[in-house]
Design brief:
The termini are far apart. The strands form three sheets. This protein has a seven-stranded mixed β-sheet with strand order 2-8-7-6-5-3-4, with helices on both faces. A four-stranded antiparallel β-sheet has the order 9-10-13-12, covered by helices on one side. The chain is an alpha/beta fold and 358 residues long. The protein is globular, with a radius of gyration of 21 Å. It has two domains: 6-30 and 256-353, Aspartate Aminotransferase, domain 1 (Alpha-Beta Complex); 37-253, Aspartate Aminotransferase, domain 2. It contains 13 helices and 13 strands.
């Protein structure tokens, strides 16, 4: 009888709760107002012939590389960062290899690594979700072939300093080191180009967050010019759809739109963290477009009460070390004001004065 491979049969499943999302979307770290109006204009201009043709990736890759300040040979456009993770695993992992993953973090690192037959080894974050550089290095063996780090991390918003990440890359030269910078715009620090000194380093970026293009599914995997062609070998030649490729240069050209949105998110992040501090609610300082906070036993009531007020937030209790935690995405200044009003009402509605003391 036909059966899937054992590694596939044993995979954990990732089912994001996308159904019934009516309200202010503060649950999936998306851009809360959508893409640049210029992108919508470009979408309306797409012709039937453009849709009928197979998409050509290379010219857009050259434009993105120029924007990022790297060479086209150091970049591969992907179907979101999800595909970048998958391709990196397919390129460098074999059954019996090991992948090191700091938890809690994005689930697809473990799923993509395990699908190859490799063993995914989780390394718990330190106190207050600090990056466990020493603990991570202590888990390295001769079989280590991948280390994946989200920076900033999801769902915690915490970051690892560049020196620690570069040290890990230099000390584990036999492994692909993936630094997932999906939330780069909200943090501002990058390791792009560092593969010139540590050639096993890869950096991923996405246009789903700050740019508001999550529905078009387009991301970037960047790295050493000798390694990127190897990753490209396992990629479909048409992995990024033509509509996404047509719109991406327009999105990149409207940096004022991105900067304005990012500025409002950063301001809202500060306001929400101050609100949590004043109310005695435990939270973890974030460098992303969201904040993770602990509501303890009041978590379910808080989520439901916020939904009743038209605001969606994300339950992260199933993540390692995140029991009772809720992740809240930030948006525009007006949306943050609405969020803070609803937060106050929701806490009063569930009878909580100081959630952190519960």
């Amino acid at each position: 009888m036909l059966e899937a491979r054992e590694s596939v049969r044993n995979l954990p499943t990732y089912h994001p709760p996308l159904g019934g999302r009516k309200g202010l979307r503060l649950d999936f770290n998306e851009n809360t107002v959508g893409c640049s109006p210029r992108v919508l204009t470009r979408l309306r201009e797409i012709t039937a012939e453009e849709i009928a043709c197979y998409p050509e990736r290379e010219p857009i890759e050259a434009a993105v590389a120029d924007y990022l300040g790297i060479k086209p040979s150091e970049l591969l456009l992907t179907n979101g960062v999800d595909e970048a993770i998958h391709l990196l695993c397919e390129t460098f992992l074999e059954p019996g290899d090991e992948a090191l993953i700091v938890v809690p973090t994005f689930a697809m690192y473990e799923i993509s690594a395990a699908a190859t037959g490799a063993r995914a080894i989780t390394v718990p974050a330190g106190a207050d979700f600090r990056f466990p550089a020493s603990a991570l290095l202590s888990q390295v063996t001769a079989r280590t072939r991948l280390i994946a780090v989200a920076n900033p991390n999801n769902p915690t918003g915490s970051v690892a300093d560049a020196a620690s990440l570069l040290e890990i890359a230099s000390r584990v030269p036999q492994a692909a080191i993936l630094i997932d910078e999906a939330y780069f715009e909200f943090y501002g620090k990058t390791l792009l180009g560092q593969w010139l000194t540590v050639p096993n380093l890869f950096v991923a970026r996405t246009f789903s967050k700050a740019y508001g293009l999550a529905g078009l599914r387009i991301g970037v995997l960047a790295g050493n010019a000798e390694h990127i062609p190897m990753v490209s070998k396992v990629s479909s030649p048409y992995n990024v759809n033509g509509v996404a490729l047509a719109c991406l240069p327009t999105a990149l050209a409207d940096q004022s739109y991105v900067s304005e949105y990012v500025g409002q998110v950063r301001q809202g992040r500060d306001e929400l963290q101050r609100e949590f501090s004043q109310r005695g609610i435990r939270y973890w300082p974030s460098q992303a477009n969201f904040v993770l906070a602990s509501f303890g036993s009041l978590k379910t009531g808080f989520i439901q009460t916020m939904r009743a007020r038209g605001i969606l937030v994300r339950d992260r209790s199933r993540d390692y070390g995140c029991e009772g935690c809720v992740r809240i995405t930030l948006g525009t200044a007006a949306q943050t004001a609405r969020l803070l009003r609803a937060l106050s009402e929701a806490l009063a509605g569930i009878g909580a004065k100081e959630v952190g003391a519960k």
